[in-house]
Design brief:
Strand content of chain A: 5-15%
Largest interface: A-B, 50 and 50 residues
Radius of gyration of chain A: 20 Å
Number of strands of chain A: 3
Largest sheet of chain A: 3 strands, antiparallel
Order of helices and strands of chain A: HHHEHHEEH
CATH architecture of the largest domain in chain A: Orthogonal Bundle
Number of helices of chain A: 6
CATH topology of the largest domain in chain A: Arc Repressor Mutant, subunit A
CATH superfamily of the largest domain in chain A: Winged helix-like DNA-binding domain superfamily/Winged helix DNA-binding domain
Oligomer: homodimer
Strand order of the largest sheet of chain A: 1-3-2
Structural class of chain A: mainly alpha
DNA sequence: CCTCTTTAGTTATCATGCTAACAAAATAGG
DNA sequence: CCTATTTTGTTAGCATGATAACTAAAGAGG
């Protein structure tokens, strides 16, 4: 998805290069090649999590809370900013993660709008379970880029 | 989306590198950096088409039919293979494109299962309209990668 | 021919992304 | 204080991706 199997061909660039003069055709081919590689890897990663009834976004949310060095929780808006996905998607995803026992919510006494989320033990275990396979996919991609 | 705003940090690699020994931490950082760059560009591209009530997939379908050098049509299954998206998504997308007059369908007398699709004049015009902005986004990304 | 398998494409259902519009709490400023 | 604005997070609705299961036509083998 996202990019054509055989897109970066010379005819494409020569045919369409006139549309935006400042660009070298080779640069466009490079960008398209990178997009293609990345979209395949993203698809593999998403398939990896989907096969385990999980999702990349849920995994990333676990990771960023775990990585926070000074606290064991993050505020909703901090999560949104770090994962860089729209707020409604984060609302929905976090709701599911609380329901399945991966996150716990605790409010703020001073500001009743704020919601903070921490990892549960199950959430920490989930990272441990999923990390090796995830890392392996990244590593396989790194290997290919060197060839 | 897809990758964290600040993911490729040293602590992440040192903390998790043990999960998959053969990998150099720098390689993982490179892959994550590439994923991040690509996912931002994909998001920009999708936003570009969405703002114009279109989609990347519809655009790619137009392009691959247009690029076919020996014929002015493609069979459904050829489109599926080239765009590398699941068949049901292509069915739905092409249906919409026929309804909005961008593609025309013509069957095959010998094999009644087969459906071939060609660009209409509106479909060709659509490519002309959308290509410059698309190319510009690719070019902006190419520029950034060099810096 | 007549069944069985394969191929081509569709339908149904769900997950995850988005924007727009909203509700509730906090803050600002007269 | 009391209204107006800002901030925090949610709800509603839609677009686009996936898989599983299906229909219909073609081909294969007795």
């Amino acid at each position: 998805m996202f990019f054509l199997k055989d897109l970066p061909t010379p005819d494409m660039t020569s045919q369409y290069a006139r549309y935006y003069a400042p660009l070298e055709p080779e640069q466009i081919v490079d960008v398209l090649t990178e997009l293609r590689r990345a979209s395949l890897l993203i698809r593999d990663i998403e398939a990896y999590f989907r096969e385990r009834d999980f999702s990349l976004l849920r995994f990333l949310i676990l990771i960023i809370i775990d990585r926070q060095s000074d606290r064991d929780y993050l505020q909703f808006s901090e999560i949104v900013e770090k994962v860089d996905v729209s707020k409604p998607v984060v609302t929905r995803t976090i709701k599911c993660m609380v329901e399945t026992g991966l996150l716990s919510m605790h409010g703020d006494e001073a500001d009743k709008r704020i919601k903070n989320y921490s990892l549960t033990d199950a959430g920490k275990a989930c990272i441990q379970d999923l990390f090796p396979g995830y890392f392996k996919l990244l590593g396989a991609a790194a290997g290919k880029s060197n060839s």
